[in-house]
Specification:
The chain is mainly β and 177 residues long. It has 2 helices and 12 strands, in the order βββββαβββββββα. The strands form 2 sheets. It has a 6-stranded antiparallel beta barrel. It has a 6-stranded mixed sheet with strand order 10-9-8-7-12-11.
Length: 177
């Protein structure tokens, strides 16, 4: 399994018992969706390795206590501490309306209500305080904040997002062409 085919579920943050149990902090708003998993992929040495789950219990909101089938000692648990947990993309719940996953919109066209066609979404920059659409507009990079009020429509059928950017924002990028 390749990381590109998966989504990041969370990270193993600590040991729970001397029997190899670990606690993973889940990176999700709906941790209850992942309480009864049969298996996960654990990122070890740049590889995703399948681990089968014997038992898991959700605790403290987004923390999942996990007993893996083949991890039965503290030493074995130490070996996976800090490792990321991944699941195949098809495990993601389907979103509707104007909600979307960042990976899902790569390659979508983006239009502004006032400006018209802007270009193609090439990525999402989520390293800043506010995630940004990264748009290729005929070779010029355009960045538009992913603010709910700006996003007017997500059209999955036509792979298009319609936004209403603040007045002057698009001109900052495209006036110099």
């Amino acid at each position: 399994m390749r990381k590109e085919d998966c989504f990041y579920l969370g990270k193993i943050v600590r040991k729970h018992s001397f029997k190899g149990e670990v606690v993973a902090k889940l990176d999700t708003d709906e941790p209850e969706l992942y309480e009864n998993l049969e298996s996960v992929f654990v990122a070890l040495s740049n590889n995703l390795v399948p681990f089968f789950i014997e038992e898991s219990i959700l605790q403290k909101g987004n923390q999942l206590r996990i007993q893996f089938e083949d991890i039965t000692t503290e030493e074995e648990a130490d070996a996976i501490l800090g490792a990321g947990l991944y699941l195949p993309l098809e495990f993601l719940p389907k979103l509707t309306g104007n909600k979307f996953y960042f990976h899902e919109i790569i390659g979508f066209d983006i239009e502004d209500i006032h400006y018209g066609y802007l270009g193609v979404i090439t990525g999402v920059n989520d390293t800043s305080a506010q995630p940004l659409f990264e748009i290729d507009s005929n070779g010029t990079d355009v960045f538009i904040p992913m603010i709910d009020n700006f996003i007017k429509k997500v059209d999955r059928d036509h792979k298009k997002i319609i936004v209403e950017a603040p007045e002057g924002l698009i001109d900052l990028y495209l006036d110099n062409q």
